[in-house]
Design brief:
Elements (H helix, E strand, L loop, with lengths): L6 E3 L14 H11 L1 E8 L10 H15 L7 E8 L4 H13 L5 E4 L3 H13 L3 E4 L16 E3 L4 H14 L4 E7 L2 H16 L3 E8 L8 H9 L4 E5 L3 H12 L9 E4 L4 H7 L1 H4 L3 E4 L7 H10 L10 H20 L1 H6 L1 H10 L2 E3 L3 E5 L5 E2 L2 E6 L12 E7 L1 H4 L14
Parallel strand pairs: 2-3, 2-4, 4-5, 5-6, 7-8, 7-9, 9-10
Antiparallel strand pairs: 1-3, 11-15, 12-13, 13-14, 15-16
Helix pairs in contact: 2-12, 3-4, 5-6, 8-9, 12-14
Length: 417
């Protein structure tokens, strides 16, 4: 666990004003603690998801705190980060210590759906706040929905409808899945399979790949090719998706055009790692792209140099936007009330319209699903790109009302009023 990068944003220089009395420093320290919000950014700091999440998410959170203006209200915010190593047991241990020992009020990000589901349960038990950006499983607003959780950026249902739908409309009626063997991969395969079948398609098979640790996908790709499916659906992410696409290119899996690859979750950092020669023509879905409009470009500039020299991903943008909105709720309801009840803080967030440079205007549904548009992109050919990170051309937009699963279909048992 890495807690070395700690940000203290102080609304007042309390220490310099303390009277020289024995009990006063203790009373002032208690008062300062009561007026402090503590945020824990939990993600993959060193593995497959580092570039799309990792330290860049912490950087985005710090910018949100700064731009919220909460310091001008006399509120102190502390931001810490930790590496969950893509393991639910590690993530649970970190969050339990954060809440029980360190007084963390909010947990942010948490890519890797198996870790996210474990964190979701812990945060609910202790009545804190969980702002999910990195995990994709749609169960967070379905069977595992919680009054303490907001699912901000994207989810497996959205990806299935947008990317999967585009592939089916293009004629890809038969599918074979290469699926990361954990909660995210299972949910993405499930949601995409349901959508393909609903459109008259068929699923010819699937293979589960160990996560983490798989680097050689050649045998899985050849098994998919032998199925003679028109579409090989990659229900994985990050480094696994990069390796799958590279090896499919090396083995000429898509040669001749009969078989198509569907990268069901592809980030701009993945495209950068692949290069346009390999990635050109990929169709993918994102809810944020750094070069989408003037506001996204301005946010990218304010974020400054990201770790690893990458452009911000939609996960990092979601960390920025969710924390910015949380800070608005804290300013509205007061620090004491926000710290006292995570449910009340999330309820206040749901009652307020959202607005930020990453996603524009939006709302948060009763089941915790943040609503905003989804964009379908195609990766440019090298000749179409003006330079580094100019990777996408926009194919279509799904509006906020239709981008995510209807609340009535999600099996969430929370009240919908």
């Amino acid at each position: 666990m890495s807690l070395d990068r700690r940000t203290l944003i102080k609304g007042a220089a309390v220490a310099s004003l303390l009277p020289a009395l024995g009990a006063a420093p203790f009373r002032s320290a208690r008062a300062q603690a009561a007026n402090t919000i503590r945020i824990g950014v939990l993600n993959d700091q060193s593995g497959l998801y580092r570039d799309l999440s990792g330290p860049g998410s912490t950087q985005a959170v710090r910018l949100a705190v700064q731009e919220s203006g909460i310091a001008q209200r006399g509120v102190t915010v502390e931001v810490v980060q930790a590496d969950h190593q893509n393991r639910p047991d590690v993530g649970s241990t970190v969050v339990r210590q954060w809440i029980d020992r360190d007084g963390i009020d909010v947990v942010v990000d948490v890519p890797t759906s198996s870790v996210a589901l474990a964190v979701n349960t812990l945060v609910r038990e202790r009545n804190k706040v969980y702002l999910n950006s990195g995990a994709a499983t749609s169960d967070l607003t379905g069977s595992a929905c919680s009054p303490n959780t907001i699912h901000w950026t994207y989810d497996t249902w959205m990806l299935a409808q947008s990317t999967g739908g585009a592939m089916v409309r293009a004629g890809g009626k038969s599918w074979f899945f290469i699926t990361a063997d954990y909660a995210f991969g299972h949910a993405l395969e499930r949601d995409t399979s349901n959508f393909v079948r609903s459109q008259g398609g068929e699923i010819l098979g699937a293979v589960r790949t160990p996560f983490p640790g798989t680097t050689d996908f050649s045998s899985f790709l050849q098994q998919a090719q032998r199925s003679r499916a028109q579409v090989i659906g990659l229900a994985n992410a990050g480094g696994d998706t990069i390796n799958s696409i590279k090896q499919a290119s090396e083995f000429r899996i898509t040669r001749g055009g009969r078989t198509k690859l569907a990268g069901l979750l592809v980030f701009v950092t993945d495209v950068h790692a692949l290069g346009l020669e390999v990635a050109q023509g990929l169709v993918l879905s994102e809810t944020f792209y750094w070069d989408l409009n003037d506001k996204t470009r301005a946010l990218t500039q304010r974020l400054g140099a990201m770790p690893g020299g990458v452009r911000p991903s939609m996960v990092q943008a979601g960390c920025y936007a969710s924390v910015l909105h949380y800070m608005k709720a804290v300013g509205d309801m007061g620090v004491a009330a926000a710290k006292a009840s995570g449910i009340e803080a999330v309820t206040r967030m749901k009652a307020m319209p959202t607005s930020d440079d990453a996603f524009g205007e939006g709302t948060i549904r009763a089941d915790g699903r943040k609503l905003h548009p989804c964009y379908l992109f195609e990766v440019k050919q090298p000749s179409e790109s003006s330079g580094a990170w100019d990777y996408y051309k926009l194919l279509g937009t799904t509006d906020a009302a239709n981008a995510f699963r209807p609340i009535t279909d999600g099996a969430c048992t929370m009240p919908r009023a």
